[in-house]
Design a protein that fits this description.
InterPro entries: Aminopeptidase_N-like_N (IPR045357), Aminopeptidase_N-like_N_sf (IPR042097), PepN_Ig-like_sf (IPR038438), Peptidase_M1 (IPR001930), Peptidase_M1_dom (IPR014782), Peptidase_M1_pepN (IPR012779), Peptidase_M1_pepN_C (IPR024601), Peptidase_M1_pepN_C_sf (IPR037144). Helix content is 40%, strand content 20%. It has 6 domains: 1-41 and 49-194, Immunoglobulin-like; 196-304, Zincin-like; 311-443, Neutral Protease Domain 2 (Neutral Protease, domain 2); 460-470 and 482-545, Sandwich (Immunoglobulin-like), CATH 2.60.40.1840; 553-698, Alpha Horseshoe (Zincin-like fold); 745-875, Peptidase M1, alanyl aminopeptidase, C-terminal domain (Zincin-like fold, Alpha Horseshoe), CATH 1.25.50. Bound molecules: (3S)-3-amino-4-(1H-indol-3-yl)butanoic acid and zinc ion. Zinc ion binds next to helix 3. Zinc ion (ZN) binds at residues 299, 303, 322, 325.
């Protein structure tokens, strides 16, 4: 397969002023008639270029140009499915009629059926599977859509924009027309049709317009839409208040579908959502699910301005809309509850997914330079690191200038397709700050490592902080340049732990609170004056840059964990301290020595519980030990087994040593009132379940507590927290899992949880169980949620058992990828990822992983996406 390169971008030869589409829906044979008004692009480089329209798997039934049938000799159909007119006139009206088979579309890209209804997914390149079109984001077109379908089977007919008429036709059919007044790229096209019901509400915009809000679901799911609707209304209000962005259509539709490759899609006026991110009620959805609904609803809504009104020039600019929109949804969620806890969770996610990607074979810059399959670049780097880079700009120029920059960006690029440079230029022009050095953050892959070294001169009362940065090489980028790194910081007094005012050499006055140092070169020295005693530096407050901060001594980490004024650094220092201790224990375990125990870890748990009432949500973040993945990332070569055993040993020991305090907190936080997904209630449940996890690790008393919670809990958060603990017990696990399945077998999203819990079990037979579960009547390779819940959870969420010495975990994943690739290549390509990280394991595991990857690569007719992941993994 051929790679596409960023620098090969050329403006499109033709633009499409309008597209009139007509759909005659039928699962086996849908007919799509399209009328495109095309005109040569005045900005095109070649004034005589042919007209080329993308197409894939389309059966051409008819073609006319300017109303006249177009002879076969005047156009060609390419092997890739495209249609080329070698000698077009400069302005033409092209009519095509094609046939497609939505019910055979198992890739869920283009028009497909799910549960008897029709849905589309066009980002990134799905529209070409619906009709012939220049399917690239810089071609922005006004669309009108007419849909005809059997009225009894498909009573609801939806598309983008505003409704523009509906009526009955012949033979039991009916029709509906939709007009979208806003020009948009084809990837934002959407159509949904079927037997759906709406949960409706309305929102009055700041200029006083009423917008109808509908969430379309299958009958029976109406009672699970309230939180999505509430989140949508809060998002609409927030975007008006914080960015001045008002919604621009009369109606905002959301349709939920259970077969979907990703989380959701921001199609103009008709968002399509994975049911996982819409449906929530207390007895079926966990707190995490509620938070997921809020975030994804907000994210897709925010795309209306950052992505839809201003879109991307080409797919290399993907982070222009995704990084910016993730930044916006993070800001929104932070504003809904505790900013600090939200930040901790976001950083935890970044470290769990993006840092390993940046250190692996698929490492790429936030703005990639080339790709084989663009679907492979919807990555944590483009999304989460992209959001961090937007945050860097925000930190550098401040909130007010950032807002002015956003205004300018939209003013300059509304209704057009922009680049990452355009965004940076708007921020620069609005702030007057030279941001050119920040371009490197978009261009350079890899996670920078920052080390700090402090030196105190008692006689001069001077403290010198030296910061150094280094980014390890990544594939295709052996040499790295220094990046501009804002380091938000403060100084604590080492003795009292109190925050000190800071005065840098050359400054007239001392400052109180957090200040930001800019590390712009490989090394920088910062000299602080009037420092009365050796300080403890508190660095990277709020996680002010997406870097790894290394080398703080253990005693300083302990002081920071106990005393820092910045909640992020307080949390992070506790985690870093525990990680350092645990890695020491892992090394001891590998030498065959007994594990030992650092009493400071138990003290930290007790101190945390003693102060938990002030902020239970924060305490819940600080209580658990660092995860197995985080620990593995700190090692030159991971040792998943040793890490797991050390972590288990410590959990048991802390659970036993702190049993009284844990039990007391557990009892005190018992839920009394009705379920509520607000931040404080989530924090309390989360802390209580963290206590339960330690108690269950310590022994049978805790397990009995978990069993009692499992039996009595009235919300899914508490039921699932208990079940995940019981599943580790040979005595309680089988009965609890069977009871859970019997109770929830009719609810797809809950059955997903049942699969995941088993896939993430540390029990010895887990790999065999995962194989067996693939034959369970409820399992299907055709449903992406189910694939992710079983196979994704096993390979990414259970390092201990995935890296089982037998190699059976690797083999089962490779088998699944090979079986899934012909059905749904995009999901298969995502699934293969963990095998590509074989260099992080020691022999013989690394060799076994590599061989499985080779087996995937040797599979006949491999899709280009899976080929790209497997071949880059082996390179
Ligand atoms: N912009 C959306 C991306 C997306 C997608 C990409 C490839 C294949 C299927 C897909 N479904 C949705 C989602 C978002 O980031 O908002
Ligand atoms: Zn997005």
């Amino acid at each position: 397969p051929r790679a596409i390169h960023r620098l090969d971008y050329r403006p499109p030869a033709f633009l499409v002023d309008s597209a009139d589409l007509h759909f005659d829906l039928d699962p086996a044979a849908t007919v799509v008639r399209s009328t495109l008004v095309l005109r040569r692009n005045p900005k095109a480089e070649d004034r005589h270029a042919p007209l080329r329209l993308d197409g894939e798997g389309l059966t051409l039934l008819g073609i006319k140009v300017d109303g006249v049938p177009f002879p076969k000799t005047h156009y060609t159909l390419g092997e890739d499915g495209s249609l080329t007119v070698p000698n077009p006139s400069d302005i033409l009206v092209l009519e095509t009629e094609v046939r497609i088979a939505p019910e055979e579309n198992t890739a869920f890209s283009g028009l497909y059926t799910s549960g008897g209804n029709f849905y589309t997914q066009c980002e990134a390149e799905g529209f070409r599977r619906i009709t012939f079109f220049p399917d690239r984001p810089d071609v922005m077109t006004r669309f009108t859509v007419a849909i005809t379908a059997d009225k009894a089977r498909y009573p609801v007919l939806l598309s983008n924009g505003n409704p523009a008429g509906a009526g009955d036709g012949e033979g039991g059919k009916h029709w509906a027309k939709w007009e979208d007044p806003h020009p948009k790229p084809s990837y934002l096209f959407a159509l949904v049709a079927g037997d759906l019901v709406a949960v409706s509400d309305y929102f009055t915009t700041k200029s006083g317009r009423d917008v109808v809000l509908n969430i379309w679901v299958r009958a029976g799911d109406e009672d699970k839409c309230a939180y999505a609707m509430d989140s949508l209304k809060r998002s609409m209000k927030w975007d008006e208040e914080v960015y001045g962005f008002e919604y621009d259509l009369d109606v905002f539709n959301i349709a939920a579908v259970s077969d979907f490759n990703m989380g959701a899609m921001e199609n103009k006026g008709l968002n399509v959502f994975n049911t996982k991110f819409v449906l929530a009620k207390p007895d079926t959805a966990t707190d995490g699910d509620y938070q997921g609904v809020e975030t994804v609803i907000a994210h897709e809504y925010f795309h209306n301005w950052t992505g839809n009104r201003v879109t991307c020039r080409d797919w290399f600019q993907l982070s222009l809309k995704e990084g910016l929109t993730v930044f916006r949804d993070q800001q929104f969620s932070g504003d809904q509850g505790s900013r600090a806890v939200k930040r901790i969770r976001d950083v935890r996610g970044l470290r769990a997914a993006q840092f390993p990607e940046d250190a692996g074979p698929m490492a790429h810059p936030v703005r990639p330079d080339s790709y084989i399959e663009i679907d492979n670049f919807y990555t944590p780097t483009v999304y989460q690191k992209g959001a961090e880079v937007v945050r860097l700009l925000h930190t550098r120029i401040g909130a007010q200038a950032f807002r002015r920059g956003m205004d300018l960006y939209v003013e300059r690029h509304d209704n057009s397709a922009a680049t990452i440079e355009d965004f940076r230029a708007a921020m620069q022009d609005a702030s007057g700050v030279d941001l050119s050095a920040f371009a490197k953050w978009y261009e350079q892959a890899g996670t920078p490592e920052v080390t700090a070294e402090g030196e105190y001169d008692e006689a001069a009362r001077r403290y010198t902080l030296t910061l150094r940065q280094k980014t390890p090489p990544t594939p295709g980028q052996p040499e790295k340049r220094p990046l501009p790194i804002p380091v938000a910081m403060g100084l604590l007094d080492a003795g009292t732990g109190r925050e000190q005012p800071t005065r840098l050499q050359g400054e007239n006055e001392a400052r109180t609170g957090t200040r930001t140092l800019m590390l712009e070169d490989a090394e920088a020295r910062f000299v602080f004056e009037d420092v009365p005693a050796p300080p403890v530096p508190s660095l990277l407050r709020g996680f002010s840059a997406p870097v790894k901060l290394k080398g703080l001594p253990l005693d300083q980490l302990r002081t920071l964990a106990a005393r820092d004024t910045d909640p992020f650094t307080r949390w992070d220092s506790g985690q870093q301290y525990a990680a350092a201790v645990m890695l020491g224990m892992v090394a001891a375990h590998r030498r065959g020595e007994p594990p030992g125990f650092d009493p400071a870890l138990a003290e930290a748990v007790r101190a945390n519980l003693a102060g938990a009432d002030a902020d239970p949500a924060f305490a819940a973040e600080a209580l658990p030990l660092p995860g197995e993945g985080f620990l593995a990332d700190q090692m030159d070569l991971a040792d998943p087994e040793a890490i797991h055993l050390v972590r288990r040993h410590l959990r048991r020991r802390i659970g036993a040593e702190c049993a009284d305090a844990l039990r007391e907190t557990y009892e005190r936080l018992a839920d009394t009132g009705p379920y509520s997904p607000d931040g404080a209630s989530i924090g309390r449940r989360s802390l209580r379940n963290a206590c339960l996890a330690y108690l269950a690790a310590a022994g049978e008393d805790g397990m009995r507590l978990a069993r009692a919670q499992f039996d009595a809990a009235a919300n899914m958060t508490d039921v699932l927290a208990a079940l995940s603990l019981l599943a580790e017990s040979e005595e309680h696990g089988p009965a609890a899992l069977a009871a859970f399945h019997a109770r929830w077998r009719g609810d797809e999203l809950v059955v997903d949880k049942w699969f995941s819990i088993q896939a993430m079990s540390a029990q010895a037979g887990t790999a065999a169980r995962v194989r067996e579960l693939q034959r369970h009547p409820d399992f299907s390779l055709r449903n992406p949620n189910r694939v992710r819940s079983l196979l994704g959870a096993f390979a990414s969420g259970n390092p201990y058992r995935f890296h089982n010495r037998s190699g059976e975990g690797y083999a089962l994943l490779a088998d699944a990828v090979i079986a899934l690739d012909p059905i749904n290549a995009s999901t298969a390509a995502r699934l293969v990822g963990p095998l590509g990280l074989w260099r992080r394991q020691a022999p013989p595991l690394s060799g076994m992983m590599r061989r499985e990857l080779e087996r995937v690569l040797a599979a006949p007719n491999l899709s280009k996406g899976t080929y790209e992941k497997a071949s880059k993994g082996l390179a």
